[in-house]
Amino acid sequence: IMKKIFCILLSGFVLLAASCAGKISKDQSVDIEKNTNNLKKDNIKNKNNMGAQQKVLVAYFSHAGENYSVGVIKKGNTKIIAEMIANQMHGDLFEMMPVNDYSSNYKVCVKTAAEEKRQNARPALKSDTIIENYEVIFVGYPNWCGDMPMIVYTFLEKHNWQGKTVIPFCTNEGSGLSDTEHSIAKSCKGATTLPGLSLRGAVAQNEQEKALQQVTSWLNKLGF
Fold first, then answer.
1. Given CB 3.0 to 4.6 Å as the disulfide criterion, which of 99, 106, 111, 152 pairs with 124?
2. What is the pLDDT at residue 52?
3. Tens digits of per-residue pLDDT, 166-220?
């Protein structure tokens, strides 16, 4: 009889211990889940504050006048997108302007762009900016002859990009970024280059709400 009583008491003790262990394990699981969720929230908060913690410059070249697909425009396609990015990122704007302006006539401008590319020219800038004041620099341009306009190379080669984050964006009518991301990485030695944005000029001009959505989505993917 005593042996049976001992076995019953022992079984009860084992069940009680298992119950307590299960309760502790459950409580610990809740704590772990809460900590994990808090960590995720902190990561998202930090991610969204990346741009706010760093000084941002949006440097761009844009061409007004007669443009392919959109006709004669007062504000260049790339300038429209540059302003959207600067507004979203609370950044400063710098427009690359040549000493010798490009023609407002589309065919003449294309001819000049092709000749500059053939010569690997570096057209002079009217002015410059101090990129040392910034951590994140967006670089914008139209796709001319499957490349950046040569004046963008002038700008890139004038500066030391060590430790900077460089992010390209490009307007075009179907040619995309071409190989310009690689060209920027090569020209901006020492910089971290992030994936660029390709956006149609016709969208920038005529569908600005859609353009803004694309810009916002892209910035979110980059972590801003």
1. 99
2. 56
3. 999 999 999 999 999 999 999 999 999 999 999 999 999 999 999 999 999 999 9
CB neighbourhood size of 202 (10 A): 19
Cα atoms in the Cβ-side hemisphere of radius 13 Å centred on 21: 6
**C-alpha closest to that of 50 among 164, 136, 130:** 136
Distances (CA, A) of 157 to 48, 92, 106, 166: 31, 20, 27, 13
Q: Give bridge partners of residue 200 from the DSSP assignment.
A: 172
Cα distances (angstroms) measured from residue 217 to each of 10, 126, 150, 211: 63, 33, 29, 10
Closest CA to 138 of 105, 93, 170, 168: 168
Cβ proximity of 77 and 67 under 8 Å: yes
For the cut 80, the answer to whether the pLDDT of residue 72 exceeds it is yes
DSSP state of 56: E
Spatial separation of the C-alpha atoms in residues 202 and 77, rounded to whole Å: 8
User: Which of 52-56, 114-118, 127-131, 210-214 has the lowest average pLDDT?
Assistant: 52-56
For residue 194, report the phi and psi dihedrals to the nearest 5 degrees: -105, 160
